[in-house]
Amino acid sequence: MRLLATWRADLIAGAIVAVLLIPQSLAYAMLAGLPPQVGLYASLLPLLAYAALGSSPVLGLGPVAVLALMIAQALGALPAGVSATEGALVLAAEVGLLLATAAVLRLDALSSLLSVPALRGFENGATLMIAAGQLPVLLGSAAAGFTLPALVSSAPDGGLGLASAVWGGAAVALLLLSRRAGPRLLSRLAPLLLLVAAMLLSALTPAARGVAQVGALPSLAMPLGLPLLDAALWLQLLPAAALVALMGFVSSLAVSESLAQRRGEKLLPAAEMRGLAAANLVASVSGGMPVAGSFSRSILLHEAGSRSRLSLVFVAVFMALAMLLLAEPLAYLPKPVLAAVIVVAVLGGFSLRPYRDAWRYAREEGLLMVAVTAAVLLWSIAAALAIGVVGSIALLIQRTARPHVARIGRVPGTQHYRNLERYAVECRPEVVGLRVDESLVFTNARGLTDAVLGHVRAHRKQVGPPQRVLMLMAPVNHIDVSGLTALQELHAALAAEGLRLEFSEVKGPVLDKLKAVGWLERHDVSLYLSHHEGIQAGEHVLRPSLADHDAPGQL
Amino acid sequence: MRLLATWRADLIAGAIVAVLLIPQSLAYAMLAGLPPQVGLYASLLPLLAYAALGSSPVLGLGPVAVLALMIAQALGALPAGVSATEGALVLAAEVGLLLATAAVLRLDALSSLLSVPALRGFENGATLMIAAGQLPVLLGSAAAGFTLPALVSSAPDGGLGLASAVWGGAAVALLLLSRRAGPRLLSRLAPLLLLVAAMLLSALTPAARGVAQVGALPSLAMPLGLPLLDAALWLQLLPAAALVALMGFVSSLAVSESLAQRRGEKLLPAAEMRGLAAANLVASVSGGMPVAGSFSRSILLHEAGSRSRLSLVFVAVFMALAMLLLAEPLAYLPKPVLAAVIVVAVLGGFSLRPYRDAWRYAREEGLLMVAVTAAVLLWSIAAALAIGVVGSIALLIQRTARPHVARIGRVPGTQHYRNLERYAVECRPEVVGLRVDESLVFTNARGLTDAVLGHVRAHRKQVGPPQRVLMLMAPVNHIDVSGLTALQELHAALAAEGLRLEFSEVKGPVLDKLKAVGWLERHDVSLYLSHHEGIQAGEHVLRPSLADHDAPGQL
């Protein structure tokens, strides 16, 4: 009974998502510069492959808008004699192989290289570029381009088609109306209803005169077979495939992870990688194009009550039915209507809020987000992703570049020590209490001695002549070889001024490494379990032996 | 009187260093593939420029071995019609301009990109390669190459010269003997004495037959003038110049900083950059080659009692004298003797200890060091530096890639909380105490929710059903936009399980940013000044208002 209930739920969810996927698959194939039926092919067998190997019960796999734009750019300069369809198959094969390799080598952590600002900036830029690129199709213009400058410069020669503009404008208006005014069910059915109505109208009346139509399709029989095995072509498409694979994996993971957390489920990134790899490999031998998880369709699968990956199997069944039914009328579909479906779908996901939020929280990350978006619009996909990754790493390094060392004192009446620039605290003259607020790594190690000596000077002036420097090491999560070298220099510099160096609250893993090389004994550095204990310890107090801190379960 | 004492001390230090600089400058020029007098020119006016603008009183400026190797590689493929001497001047001009630009843009922090393992690995690799490259000269072979494979493959056709081998072997033996056996003064004078003796012997006896000599020099008048202004040549040498500038600055800074700390002086990295820029620009208009601070000569300046940069002025005066005296006899100097000076000088600085130390402290950094050294020997300077920089960054990112979240409990009888996997601590069932051991940034943010939920499950099983999760945030030095997004997801995931999220010991700068966007209020997250306070706070205790933590000077 329970199994039956799951099946029923998945069947319903599958049907609902198929209704959205049919128009989207046609539209995104067109967006990628491919014949629309490629979108249908990519929405069939690849879904079964993911259902077999993936892990999320709600990943709306298939063609997605951002990847479609990347595919269009990748296929822009194919050698003579290679069709876009053939190029797309090679691209899908490479994406699948790259993801499979990454899965075998457990490289799924690589996806963390795309920070939130880089990812959101990229997606928003791609969204705007997709919408801008569909504008000429909507208006019956021949203008085209993968960047705004290219698009604008081709606009004067593009001309305008009144009939196209009327079809396109009407379609956009109807879609927006169904979103705003209608009940939820209608707004979901709207794109499919619109496509069917447009095909009927265009086939049965003369109203479609002068409007570009999809045109007769060669055949709607799915072409099974290996992609072109041309080494030069594979090499040419490899860089683009790497970007598509990275973007496809990261965006799929982002949506499936956030849904898994909402659903209280556990997601396996490695399984997601395998599932995506399999889906793309299957797409490459069944006439498809690179696929990934769509944000809108995943949300819909979740809301429609999908319980297992079986829902994707049902989606595929419905897509097969649609292929049979659509074979004939698809030829009549006016292109401006498809463009309207794309524009309304992608702009629904666009928002300026992430920029505002990032800017308010951290200026430099807000700027990075704007830079990535601008790079998509004005330069290229690859440049935008490179700016995002390199920029994120640069900001991370810059942030750890100054070793923040705070002078701390005791909050009166407690065993608690805080920054004396922020709190009214007590200090003792004979000991300089410092808190090292960053891991000691190569990016900041060089400045450590200077920072500490500065605090010692200030202490001598304000509190009195110190005998020792006690560093609270709790925030230090790691000390690398450069950091160790810096500690060595610090020890020597303090010794030159007749000061002892002491540590408190050193974390376990950090302590283990220092002990492994005998650093503490060699430099005769005292250790205290708590900073309070270290501050209290006068000369009359015996220094606790290292062994005391060693055994787990002891003080 | 005091001024006079300083002058006297600087005069003596200058004389001692000049004795070492004369043979080194000749040898390193030859190592760079340049006529030996270029080394003398590079040791004259550039020293005055650094003395005017630099900041360290003990930087042994002039030609250095590692840069000489880099220069030789850069000048290996000059276009026809351009001599190596002309190329070296262009290279020096570019190094000077790049350093000047970096100084103006305050890019001296860029130097932190070279971690200690990368720097030491590179220097050791260059040292070995220099020694290997001089071996054929010592042995009278014509073999040559900038990498070990190139050197080895040219060896069979190189032949051997018995006379050269005798000269070279004798010179090496004498130099080593003076180091091991003789008093300190002798070992310092040895290279110069050896050169003078070799020139005399070679000029006055037939013993030098069959041995390559430096040969008659065109003129020892310093050629003043602008370097070749050829755009294509400048562009070709620019990448090498960038590497030379980076390496020159970082190695100079490393030695001058460590000496400044030893001497209790303050070093200004920006002034060092300006001084090096000026020195290289002056070198480029006075017949020199790119210069930097030498480790051995800087130590010697310090030990010889240099008190101010005036000592460098005296070095320059002695170099001018040497130029006049050496003009004639330099032609007779046998090349194997110069090679012996190089080999003994650079191998004196070689040690396997840094590899062993790094390996014992952190395997992956030890491996990186070996990889950088191997890349210098087997591949190229540029590849080695790239591996060093990229590898250091990759290790840094990998280290922060897993968010280490520890479950903590109270050390009995204290207000202190430690990892329950390492210490015997007390936990209360209603609250899960966690310590976030890393800044929350894009490289680790994605794993936060999973890690916390895992601890919550373990707590539920081992201690009891919790009502809230209290995260000790003291080790969190920074939260970027990706980290904030992760906290948002965590908050939602905990809320879905009916758990409250609370923070303790949030650092001032982190708190400021969270408050600036109203994050804490919006998510109703309680804050505690100390973790102990937060654990004690039951439902009956009023949550402290945010304002309490706000004002400096209050609890």
Give average pLDDT of chain A, whole number. Answer: 84
Oligomer: homodimer
Classify the beta-strand content of chain A into a percent band. Answer: 5-15%
Largest sheet of chain A: 6 strands, mixed
Counting H and I runs of at least 4 residues, what is the number of helices of chain A? 23
Unreliably modeled segments of chain A: 539-555
| Protein structure class of chain A | alpha/beta
- For the secondary structure, the number of strands of chain A is 8
Shape of chain A: elongated
Give the fraction of residues assigned to helices of chain A: 55-70%
Number of domains in the coordinates of chain A?
2
Gyration radius of chain A, in Å:
31 Å
Q: Order of strands across the widest beta sheet of chain A?
A: 4-3-5-6-7-8
Largest interface: pair, residues per side: A-B, 77 and 77 residues
Alpha-carbon distance between the two ends of chain A: 57 Å
